[in-house]
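Continuing the batch. This is chain 6 of the set; chains 1 through 5 are on the previous pages. Same settings as before, nothing changed between runs. Recording input and output for traceability.
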Amino acid sequence: MSVCVEGGKPPFDEWTHSIRLRIEAALARLLPHEGTPPERLHRAMRYACLGGGKRIRPLLAFAAGEVSGAAPDRLEIVSCAVEMIHIYSLVHDDLPCMDDDALRHGRPACHIEFGEASALLVGDALQSLAFELLSHECLGPRRSEMLGLLARASGSLGMAGGQAIDLAAVGQDIRLEELERMHAFKTGALIRAAVLLGVFCGAPLDSEETALLERFVKSAGLLFQVVDDILDCTASTALLGKTAGKDAVANKPTYVSLIGLSEARAFAESLHSLAAGALAPFGGRGGRLREIVDFIVKREF
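Output for chain 6:
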């Protein structure tokens, strides 16, 4: 029998399980039915989105929603939108012209299962559907701001730009500052969007609270990538659900290749402390966000 934590909240593992189930059900409802023409594209979209993934970005959105007292129905919509953007990026990243990976979430990547052309269209369609969701009137007067936030996080000054920098950096010697900039675009921008979208679903924060959240997302986004780099060279393919060791084989710059495994671990611990420190003034409202960064760093440590 589980024991509730402060304020009657369920333990973190139960909370994450409930949010993941909720997002799985919401995605299944919001995605076009596989019997709707064009059937193959819709089957591929559902294949890419359902039945796998840690759902870190929806968890961040729901956790951030506790900071601003957001309604769960709003959080569900923004969570699905940001998760669709994330999944579209994975589908495209796995393509032979990008990172060329045949495995995702422990099963064949979308382009292996449905072909490269269908995988390309899956990404296009998921991106469009994400923005359609954010235009929903139930999100209230800030939905225009939400649309702009997700668009910037996804574009050339965000996730897509980070992937372009990543591809150009293969086999190159780059400085640590350049690596950090690349990941701030590629990974950090969408993590920031997930947190702010969750906050935007509730009551407005004051300028000091907003600045603290910006400090949090900067550290948390980089933490996620540093731990990901560590796992790529220390974890198994079975644990990761994708091909382990690909960064080293592809001669891609990572925190491990630039500063070594021991220093990368120390850097992750430092980022974890910075993220947790930024949340401290929120007290219980920031509890779930704190638990998520604890979970991120404990994936490896």
